[in-house]
Structure formats: structure tokens, C-alpha cells
Design a protein that fits this description.
Layout (H helix, E strand, L loop, with lengths): L9 E12 L2 E12 L3 E5 L6 H8 L7 E6 L2 E2 L5 H7 L1 E4 L11 H8 L6 H14 L1 H5 L10 H13 L5 E5 L7 H16 L3 E5 L3 H7 L2 E6 L2 E7 H5 L2 H7 L3
Parallel strand pairs: 3-8, 3-9, 6-7, 7-8
Antiparallel strand pairs: 1-2, 1-4, 4-5, 9-10
Helix pairs in contact: 3-6
Length: 244
Amino acid sequence: MQHTQHPKAVLLRVQNLKVSYGGIQAVKDVSLEVREGELVSLIGSNGAGKTTTMKAITGLLPVQSGQIELCGHNIAGLGPWDLVHQGLAMVPEGRGVFTRMSIVENLHMGAYIRNDKAAIDADMERIFATFPRLKERRNQLAGTLSGGEQQMLAMGRALMSRPKVLLMDEPSMGLSPIMVDKIFDVIQDVAAQGVTILLVEQNASRALQIAQRGYVMESGNISLSGAAHDLLHDPKVREAYLGE
């Protein structure tokens, strides 16, 4: 008897999503999916609707119509608090760390839905192994960190909830080129640990280089999708987003 490779389960599925934002139809009809263990990139120019899509998935903006499913359950309309309990974590654009709390306190905030102290401590050590810069400064206030270090802290804090799916919105924005390299290395490390990731990123070439699959968003719609490698070499994508 032959064993066929089972396709991985779809953890996040968005179908025919429509979202209005500030009176404008920012997301017109978006469908995408992320399978277990995948790193999927959503790219597109500024104003294409990427962040609005993310905010709708994470309950920060109301869904006009369409479906959002996490592990087969409809999550459209749930608030961010409920979504963390369901296994969805977000690293928001602009990082959103608690500036007057220490690094350790920020990471504990990420684990607020958990009460397994030993496992929380073990995860904290794992985060410090992934982000040595945070370990050195563990008792420093988050507000004293550089932008790149705050981005690492936001990622570490999201991982502390042990998410089934991790959403990242523009993690490289505003960072120095060296820090961008570091952040993309870390995203790859996190993905290699088996975390399922949906990455929204303006740096299209970097995002596609580390992803398995990608979606291209234009004026509120998905205009292209496919294997990240194919998109990276697609003339239309290269011209529009890779400056060629």
C-alpha cells in the first residue's frame, strides 16, 4: 500500500473578505490560506489593503462580509482578546511594546492567557536563545531599546502565547539595513521551529525569499498568488515591486 503525503491542514483561511475603512472599500474580495508550518508572505504597494486585511483578521476592524477561519472555526467578529485564546497572535506594525515595562515584563504579558509557570519559564529561555540581545538587556525598560530590538521584543512577546498562527505586519519598517537582515534571519528561525506565519511586508523581495508561498495584493484584491520562488521571478512582480 502506498503512503501518500497528506497535505498539511489549513490553519488560517480567509474567503471573499470585504472591509471598509474610513468610508473606502479598502479590501474588496480577498481569499487566502495558510497551512500548518508554512511561511506565507502577503506583498503589495502602500495602500493596497494589506494592513486592513491584517486588522480584519485580528478583530481590530469589522468585517463587512466574507469568512475568516482559524483551525476550521469562524473567527470573524471576535475581539483580539478572544483571538489570542484561539491561537492567533499578531506582531503589529509599529511594534506596540509596553515602553515603561522591562523586557521580561513585556514577555510575561505575552503569556497572560497561560498559567503553566514551568513551561512559561522554559519558553522565556527559548525566546532569549532566539534573541540574545534581549537576554543581555532583560531588565531594561522596553522604551530604551532601539527600533530593531523593540521589533524582536514584539515578536518574542507574541510567541509567548504559543500561537497556532503568527501574523506579522511590516516587521522591517523603519529599521536600518543591518537590522532588517537580522529580523529576516529571526523570522526564518521562528518558521524553522515550526511556527505558522503570515507575513505582510513592503520589502517584497526579502519577503518572497524566505516564504514558501506568496500573495500579491493590488487595490483591495489579490492579483497574483503562487509559490514564492515563482512570484520572485515573475516579470510583473519584478517590475512592480522589485524595482526592475
